[in-house]
């Protein structure tokens, strides 16, 4: 099929590349000329395992193209994907300006009948708005149907998630449009779930809100475990053996970050308030997460009284491993609050350092290795569970630090292991190991 994808951000590029890989002819359109040029040269604008290789392969095969020109992209497109950003406004609502602009661009350039598919996460009712904008601005007498097809990709595994996802949700009010999008997605071999447009839009928000709830729930349990002498890892394992609960997304830590959970949970609270519904459960989930992101700081203050003059190494800065994405990362909150407390911050991340520099306080010192960061520090905060960081041994900490005090925000180590070394090791929802003396 001839496909146009508007927006080559995270969702758009992964979608475009993967659709071309299953044999479709895809043109990705973006207003950023230099970005388009770089993609043509085989350089992916985002770090995502496997993406660049697939991009180059399909570009060379002639199935994938990049352009800044809408006319070129929509000329004979049978399906047009909208994959532009829906940033969060001050009040937590989603900003739909880019979506609306794309709807106009599509309407003014379409040459033949087409299905317009919204991939971006949009509030319930947005696809109807997209359809009415398209109908208002349509330049040619062609038939346009709108389909909601939310994405469930995780950063760091977006390509493999696209090929191995749990479901593809297709929300349509036209059976014919739904059938076209179903056909287009068939080569992925993933279960397809068809529903109406509004339900599909809601599935995306409800899924992310539910996963965020799971995380905040286990984090609250972890806080209780600490007070009551239980071990949250064992509790999560025992809970997860119940199929109804499931063992995923029960990893206690310093909260969720990233481009989706914080934004989508806030947006859903706002969406609910517009229909006069107080989503109290989700508000608590958000509040728990905000506090959880500060947990290592709270623990360190309890331990030391004051952090004034202390140097704290933040190991891992990205919101999770295998990405350079710093959006809503706990490291940002921690670094700013540490500086306010009078502490010095040394940061290290295997790949997110450039992005971190834009968001962490100006005083932050960056090192070229975790070892270097730890050697400069009085206290270590493990913020992101990169393999590289998990591979640091307790022996290393003992060698690199005069007084090895480690606050692990991601439970990277076995407690039993910690007891064998002369370290002080504080983790999440588990007892602290105090073996210094
Ligand atoms: C998420 C959803 O998983 C995906 O379906 C959606 O399309 C976009 O949002 P992503 O933000 O890439 O994907 O990352 P994910 O792996 O889900 O992790 C999100 C955050 O939750 C991370 O900060 C992670 O550290 C945290 N997390 C995740 C936990 O703290 N505990 C867990 O058990 C799982």
From TrEMBL:
It holds the Pfam family UDPG_MGDP_dh. It comes from Metabacillus endolithicus. SMART domains: UDPG_MGDP_dh_C. Its EC number is 1.1.1.22. Pathway: Nucleotide-sugar biosynthesis; UDP-alpha-D-glucuronate biosynthesis; UDP-alpha-D-glucuronate from UDP-alpha-D-glucose: step 1/1. It catalyses: UDP-alpha-D-glucose + 2 NAD(+) + H2O = UDP-alpha-D-glucuronate + 2 NADH + 3 H(+). Belongs to the UDP-glucose/GDP-mannose dehydrogenase family. It is an enzyme of class 1 (oxidoreductase). InterPro entries: 6-PGluconate_DH-like_C_sf, NAD(P)-bd_dom_sf, UDP-Glc/GDP-Man, UDP-Glc/GDP-Man_DH_C, UDP-Glc/GDP-Man_DH_C_sf, UDP-Glc/GDP-Man_DH_dimer, UDP-Glc/GDP-Man_DH_N, UDPglc_DH_bac. The keyword Iron does not apply. Keywords: NAD, Oxidoreductase. This is UDP-glucose 6-dehydrogenase. One of its GO terms (molecular function) is oxidoreductase activity. The lineage of its organism: Bacteria, Bacillati, Bacillota, Bacilli, Bacillales. Residues 313-415 form the UDP-glucose/GDP-mannose dehydrogenase C-terminal domain. It comes from the Bacteria.
